[in-house]
Amino acid sequence: MSKQTELDNVRGAIVGNNICSDLAAQATNLVMGDGNIDADIVFIGEAPGKKEDELGLPFMGAAGKFLNDMLSQAGMDRSDVYITNIVKYRPPNNRDPRADEKAAFLPYLLEQLQIIQPKVVITLGRHSMEYFLPGKKIGEIHGQPERVQIDGNELLIVPLYHPAAALYNGSLRQTLIGDFLKVPEIIKTLG
User: Which of these, 20, 43, 116, 176, could form a disulfide with 166 (CB 3.0-4.6 Å)?
Assistant: First the structure.
């Protein structure tokens, strides 16, 4: 079975199992992910926003433009990586995803990672970081790679600030860019 077929099956399971039906009812699209399904790097955000919900693709608004700019600065293109979110439907009024919503979608996110088999998982913001690095504070560990065991698989997690945070807080912008530019070196050290 191809990776794309497997990912399509994950999408079908989310719909078939009626995951977060309250979110689904008010969403325009289920936003699964976008990019290279053979990527070495998977970026995980928190949940789709208004633009993402409209287009059915993650990171399409201002934060997505900033993400694309950082990828370019790091010598990468959006087509080189895979981008997804923990929560696959837009929460109302772009509120933060709730713990129960993240928990409901987590098994499907883990299936996505199992299918894609990235070398590095980059969490964007605290919501996606919390599952992989519980009890940690992003302000203390941003940009620092850490190996974790998830369901018997070892993953290299690199927690970064969310691009939207850097748009709202100018002092985080250079920090995020600096952390982001370390990513190619982290990949090289993995061989």
Answer: 176
